[in-house]
Amino acid sequence: MPSVRRALMIMTLMACSGATAHAATGFSDDFEHGGQLHITGDGWRAETWEEVPGSDRLRVTHASRAGDYGVRFSLFRNDEYVETSNRTELKKDTRPGDTFGMGNNGDERYYRWNIFIPNDYQVDTHPDAFEIVGQLHRSPDGGQAWKSPPIDLAIKGDQWHININNDGAGYDADLGTIQKGVWTEFVLHTIWSPGSDGQTTLYRNGAEVFSQQGPNTYGSHYSDNDFFLKVGVYKPYWRDTDTPYTVKSSTWQRTFVYDDVLVGDAGESPQSMRSEQPARPIEIHRYGTHEHGADARVVGNGSDRHRYNTGGSTRLESRGSDWSGAQYATYLRFDLSDSALPIVADATLQLVLELDQNYPLDVYAVPDAFTGREDGYGLPEFGETEWTEGNGSWSLATGTEINGDRAPGFDETTGLPDTAVLEFIGTIATTGGLRDDSMVELTSTALIDAVAADTNDQITLVIVARDTSGSGTWIHSKESDTDLAPSLEIITQAPELPSDFNLNGAVDVDDVDILLANLGHPGFDLTNDRRSDLADFDAIVTGDAFLGSLLGDINGDLAIDLLDLSILAANFDTNATGTLPYTLGNLNADHAIDLLDLSILAANFGRTAVPEPAATALLAALPTLLRRRRSHA
């Protein structure tokens, strides 16, 4: 991953008291509530498996279509049922005292939501499989049985579908192939009616893709209650074989991101319902799953007091220290080299646990400096098939072998994780209530930062059970079962301002340093040629849309003067193995500050960069525009 930290603390965020109104009436939520879901009052209701400890199947994320936040929904096939089936959803209904209802028979309504489908979304190949990713439903009249949603948006195979259910035969329309790796905006326009005067029109990214006159809801037993909107994922055929149902699915896991939800009345139009901000690119990658087995490998599970191997076991072990004198540590290494976007917005470790033990699992990151082999010790590199059991291990404190009984990152005396070396990521608080083969998830700011800070496109995690009984917890590593292997889900995104790589709301010389540190990475391409090179370095310094200055303006004040010369002079004759920062005086993007840099500064000495009038107006208006966007919530 590129070495850009997700600057969570740099941005000043305004926590909002509730969901927002659109125009005179309506409901909207862009999820800009300071990192919290608006669940109470006039906001959402959550329908998700909350018993999964710390898993957060439904949570706010820094991956967003626009602004600072979106919502990530995840679902695993072995999750406990919610309302008799597998679902993770947000529900918005009409509450007592609401001045704006979600719609009833005879009402005209517009409903908008934006959904992001991951780049590596696995199509469910079972002929009966589908998943609902948006629906308009309503509760039946008292004592009556529930029916299918009057209108739902679904994915069947790799196709979008809209389904309309009424007292008759209903309707199922194929809307074309889904698009992975991009935001898709849907606007649904309805005039609700169980009769011929009903109207249903669906727009995708502003274009009409479906329109039908006729009944779009039930007439009998469904007239007393308003409709409600649900967004998220509902997978009705993920059923266990020990129920009356059989599994009708070829997939195990789903992740979607949603943003920018809006409900309007007859005063709106298809155009007024469009999202105001342009969509910001994001990418979702999962490493280590069955489909991506080459992207990760299990480094080992410890035995004989931290000795470890990569034998043929289909399970990993993390155990306490009092079981026959052994403590087991599981090492996971992930290859993160394929992301093309520079900002790490979200990171989630996903583990499938085989046993329902009560022992928390502590997760640590192993620093890059300690993950390579040195004199035969340390963790194996990608491509090495196994350790030799007698090869020993590497003491991180001394860099020498300690009798073959010490795993990297553990204290020589206590046998416990050495927190001076390993970076604590978080704890997975397992409970006895978990089902067999339950998936648990862990995310934290520390995990996001550890992924963002890696320098070799790899990250190694070590997992240790915090117990003294020695019973421990099994972690799946089966290659034969899709998605049961440990995985790491990473969401990356582009900055809102091109080249604002440190997310401080402006393009400055610190962004130039970040680009120089990541030359060659496509996520830092400013010239649309799918790579970052000297052309991008020149663009970010001199381009009117970026810094808009001249080479030699080391301090970014749009003038090349004695202040810049003094910085270069203070660092003259500095040499490095990597590219030196621009802010030290490296003006030609090489590994030294020398006469070449001095000659560049001298050529521009005394000059002042004056932005073009259009750029000046844009820079002057930028603070107001940013305040307006963030106060929208």
From TrEMBL:
Q: Where is the signal peptide?
A: 1-23
**One of the GO BP terms on file:** polysaccharide catabolic process
Instruction: Give the highest taxon in the source lineage.
Output: Bacteria
Q: Does the keyword Signal apply?
A: yes
Listed InterPro entries: Dockerin_dom_sf (IPR036439), Polysacc_lyase (IPR025975)
Q: What's a Pfam family this protein contains? A: Polysacc_lyase
Sorted alphabetically, which keywords does the UniProt record give? Answer: Signal
* Disordered as annotated region, ranges: 300-319
- Coiled coil keyword on record: no
Its protein name is Uncharacterized protein
Q: What is the species of this protein?
A: Mucisphaera calidilacus
Lineage, broadest ranks: Bacteria, Pseudomonadati, Planctomycetota, Phycisphaerae, Phycisphaerales
